[in-house]
UniProtKB/TrEMBL annotation:
Cofactor: Mg(2+)
Family: Belongs to the PanB family.
Enzyme class: transferase
GO molecular function: 3-methyl-2-oxobutanoate hydroxymethyltransferase activity
Gene coding for it: panB
Cellular localization per UniProt: Cytoplasm
Binding site residues for Mg(2+): 51, 90, 122
Residues binding 3-methyl-2-oxobutanoate: 51-52, 90, 120
Keywords: Cytoplasm, Magnesium, Metal-binding, Pantothenate biosynthesis, Transferase
Protein name: 3-methyl-2-oxobutanoate hydroxymethyltransferase
E.C. designation(s): 2.1.2.11
Native source species: Kaistella gelatinilytica
């Protein structure tokens, strides 16, 4: 964050104030320079360099295979494209679960090597000590509860989480714990809208929902999903703002047709 910039940068404090002022927070994912530039210019408050890069950039089934080095590379590309938004980077699977020292080491690498503004990690009481250590080192932490895709093999499905009382109670307790530990915000993924409302009203830090109803303090979507690049992924919570899969494959077909017909390049397009 340059101190000489004219643009008013979004900070963790801005997000806290937005919750207080009841102004909804917007977050989208980005994993590369060009997309980050467009997403930032479109006016989102935060950009998440999500470990969903494992799915949409690398083509893996789950978020588990992506490495810390890969996440740092994506974060570096994004940070270079952003003037205004807060850039949050996911700690990938295996980079923080084993012990708090490793969690801090991974977070420090992300902050130092990418110059992003915050990290995000999944889980509640299980990662309490890690969050404490990272926050104590001065690194802003975003939590993530509900459907936490790094635990997919424990859950077994991508279905809605915390429908039953026991899991809902643990989630509410975890949300309060994350607030107490000093997290600046919290993603709530794929949980009942009523529970997300209760959580959002019970804590002072902003909640950012994905498949968690309208009463979260903000909303996040995966960029590739919201611009319709992913035809095969159609959860109920997703709103597609474009159909880029059709647009892009159509443009590619036109290019192929024009080259085959020796219509491209024409005289005007040649030196
Ligand atoms: O990795 C990601 O894109 C995420 C969002 C779904 C919140 O964690």
């Amino acid at each position: 964050m340059s101190v000489h910039s004219e643009i008013k940068k979004i900070t963790t404090e801005t997000l806290r104030k937005m919750k207080f002022d009841k102004e909804k927070i917007t977050m989208l994912t980005a994993y590369d320079f060009t997309t980050a530039k467009m997403v930032d210019a479109g006016g989102v408050d935060a950009i998440l360099v999500g470990d969903s890069a494992s799915n949409v950039m690398a083509g893996f089934e789950t978020t588990l295979p992506i490495t810390l080095d890969h996440m740092i590379y994506h974060a570096q590309c994004v940070v270079r494209g952003v003037d205004r938004a807060l850039v949050v980077v996911d700690l990938p699977f295996g980079s923080y679960q084993s012990n708090p020292e490793k969690a801090l080491e991974s977070s420090v690498r992300i902050m130092k090597e990418s110059q992003a503004h915050a990290i995000k990690l999944e889980g509640g009481s299980e990662v309490e000590e890690s969050i404490r250590k990272i926050v104590n080192a001065g690194i802003p932490v975003m939590g993530h509860l509900g459907l936490t895709p790094q635990s997919i093999f424990q859950f077994g499905t991508y279905k809605v989480r915390a429908k039953e009382d026991e899991e809902a109670e643990k989630l509410l307790k975890d949300a309060k714990l994350l607030e107490e530990l000093g997290c600046f915000a919290l993603v709530l993924e794929k949980i009942p809208a009523a529970l997300a409302k209760k959580v959002s009203e019970s804590i002072s830090i902003p909640t950012i929902g994905i498949g968690a109803g309208p009463d979260c303090d903000g909303q996040v979507l995966v960029y590739h999903d919201m611009v319709g690049m992913n035809q095969g992924f159609s959860p109920k919570f997703l709103r597609r703002y474009l159909d880029l899969y059709t647009e892009i494959t159509g443009a590619v077909s036109e290019f192929v047709k024009d080259v085959k017909a020796v219509d491209f390049p024409n005289e005007k397009e040649s030196y």
